[in-house]
Model the fold of this input.
Amino acid sequence: MLTVDAYAAPSATEPLVKTTIERRDVGANDVLIEIAYSGICHSDIHTVRGEWGQIAYPQVVGHEIVGTVTEVGSAVTKHKVGDRVGVGCMVNSCGECENCLAGEEQYCLAGNTGTYAAVDRDGTITQGGYSTHVVVVEDFVLKVPESIPFEKAAPLLCAGITTYSPLAHWNAGPGKRVAVVGMGGLGHMAVKIAHAMGAEVTVLSQSLSKQEDGLRLGADHYYATSDEATFSELKNHFDLIINTVSASIDINAYLSLLRLDGTLVSVGAPAEPLPVGVFTLFGNRRTFAGSSIGGIRETQEMLDFCAEHDIAPETELISADYINEAYERVLSSDVRYRFVIDAATISA
Ligand SMILES: [Zn+2]
Ligand SMILES: [Zn+2]
Done:
């Protein structure tokens, strides 16, 4: 066992505190990663506060991890000491079901093993990236291209792949009109990636407060959804809408913006079910869909795509003792656009 420094939630209601946790010994197929940076995802907050179900405490979260390989197991072939690597939302899967065999491990029929708050293969509870080191099976470790600035790369591992996967699956590209609902951690990545894929990109945000950023990051158009005229002007307009908002929205109003064979994909998860009007789907043969992160092969494809197109998340680098304040700012949408923890400050 390796004892490492970390920031953990002691309970659902207390702030995160500095502590130590145990990492398993490096097995034959494992790599040991010295974490350099760890992103803060809204899911981290939902999880530690018990809003997505009861969890065991203390719990370390964080599933946007980049770092350097410092040790490899005897059977490891994909990574070597010194490699720049990343770990995203999952650290294992069954490897045998039809979805795993198709390279879609995120949809593992036995359930993928989440990077934190999940039961690992050895029965322990997985602990996430707000820590100095992590031990991960080599198959779930990604290569982070040198050209992506390391201190910005971490959010690609969740926000990046969560938006890249549906954009790629539903063929965002030249001639396609893509709308991104919400200009937060996920939304700003969707704008950059959809733009790089060649699509015509429109941001649908509650207000115009981030309009300048949206246009700078690659959006062609920017509309406020608080303005009723937006919905009449853009009716029957989009091929693809990526909904990154986790609050409940009037889903039928957004569905009505889809043109023939258009698809609205939700990647944000509201707590309550959304009432979808089937008659709205009849019109224009519309589809309402969901998408969850991406497989390992596709995550690597996304990292390579971002390197090729010079795409990196907009980040605010913080020290570990600022995590609790950062959480409050995430909850009030006061971050442009992702907090990243400098892991060197975790042991300070
Ligand atoms: Zn996440
Ligand atoms: Zn599986």
Summary: Residues 2-158+314-345 form a domain with the Quinone Oxidoreductase; Chain A, domain 1 fold (CATH 3.90.180.10). The chain has two domains: 2-158+314-345, 160-290.
